[in-house]
Task: inverse folding
């Protein structure tokens, strides 16, 4: 592994832990993360209504007579956005490139996350035996993988033939 | 999806190996050695020989701590030649390192039970620092570190796909 790749990993972990501590801090959680999660629930609820599901959104919970999902940390896409933020922030690029990457990346992560929430509600309502495996393994991995693949595409674009291309 | 099927199939056996490793690690620092971690299917139950055997035994779904292996497998499968010897060898090395991180993750999970969830016993045996340390260690692993570990292992161990592309740049530098 090259020196700049090691440096990237060190910066990545330092940034990630710093951002985790910030997000886990109660005032930030209560005034930023929870309202954002409520917004995610409202959007998912509206989309479920649009496809004929009779759901009620209450805070971070989407419920019907069939099933209910409560969107917690870990299901709101924040974890994928933190990884994306730490990776893009640690990668050598201009501030403009980073901001563009973060904006587009966050949008993609949240779009995929809305699909995750909707599909998990539908799986829970109509195929409950599959809920656990999709909730734990499939969708978590898909959302994080999407963030990482976006980062790789972005990094290859802003710094071709350098760090992004491996050891 | 193939990785999910492999992981779900192997999990009961793998969880035993993780539980055995975490039990050994915890008992290294215990005097007397009291912790027993018993893997049953996809759960690990926590027993202490100094507790009343009739008391409830906390159970942990270890799959919640180990599914980042699926992400690791997915990342190594991105390689244009995923079944090449080089890629498979490095995936194997990454998986072994990840196994060690799973032992630490389960240890942090059990310690967070000891320091936070056993009521008066927790309060009597552990202070505020231990509660914060193990609580943060466990939560941060579950929230972001498990994914970051998979990403970092892949990033550090992936075979270089385009080393040859870097060569012309180096030649230009030498001319200067």
Result:
């Amino acid at each position: 592994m090259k020196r700049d790749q090691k440096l990237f990993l060190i910066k990545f972990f330092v940034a990630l832990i710093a951002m985790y501590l910030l997000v886990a801090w109660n005032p930030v959680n209560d005034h930023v993360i929870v309202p954002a999660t409520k917004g995610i629930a409202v959007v998912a609820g509206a989309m479920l209504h649009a496809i004929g599901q009779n759901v009620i959104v209450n805070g971070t919970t989407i419920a019907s007579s069939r099933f209910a999902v409560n969107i917690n940390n870990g299901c709101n896409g924040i974890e994928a956005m933190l990884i994306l933020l730490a990776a893009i922030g640690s990668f050598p690029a201009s501030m403009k490139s980073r901001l563009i990457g973060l904006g587009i990346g966050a949008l993609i992560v949240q779009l995929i996350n809305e699909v995750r929430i909707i599909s998990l509600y539908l799986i829970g309502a109509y195929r409950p035996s599959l809920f656990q495996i999709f909730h734990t393994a499939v969708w978590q991995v898909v959302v994080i993988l999407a963030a990482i693949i976006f980062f790789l595409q972005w990094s290859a674009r802003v710094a071709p033939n350098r760090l992004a291309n491996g050891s | 999806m193939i990785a999910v099927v492999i992981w779900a199939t192997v999990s009961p056996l793998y969880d035993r190996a993780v539980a055995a490793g975490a039990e050994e690690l915890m008992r290294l620092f215990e005097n007397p050695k009291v912790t027993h971690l018993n893997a049953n299917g996809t759960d690990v139950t926590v027993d202490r020989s100094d507790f009343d055997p009739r008391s409830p035994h906390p159970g942990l779904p270890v799959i919640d701590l180990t599914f980042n292996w699926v992400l690791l497998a997915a990342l190594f499968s991105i390689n244009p030649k995923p079944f090449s010897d080089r890629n498979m060898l490095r995936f194997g090395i990454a998986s072994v390192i990840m196994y060690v991180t799973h032992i630490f993750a389960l240890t942090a999970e059990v310690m967070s039970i000891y320091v936070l969830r056993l009521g008066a016993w927790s309060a009597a045996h552990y202070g505020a620092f231990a509660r914060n340390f193990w609580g943060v260690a466990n939560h941060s692993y579950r929230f972001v570190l498990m994914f970051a570990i998979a990403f970092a292992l892949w990033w550090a161990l992936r075979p270089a796909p385009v080393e040859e592309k870097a060569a012309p740049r180096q030649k230009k530098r030498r001319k200067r």
Q: What stands out?
A: Residues 95-126 of chain A form the longest helix (32 residues).
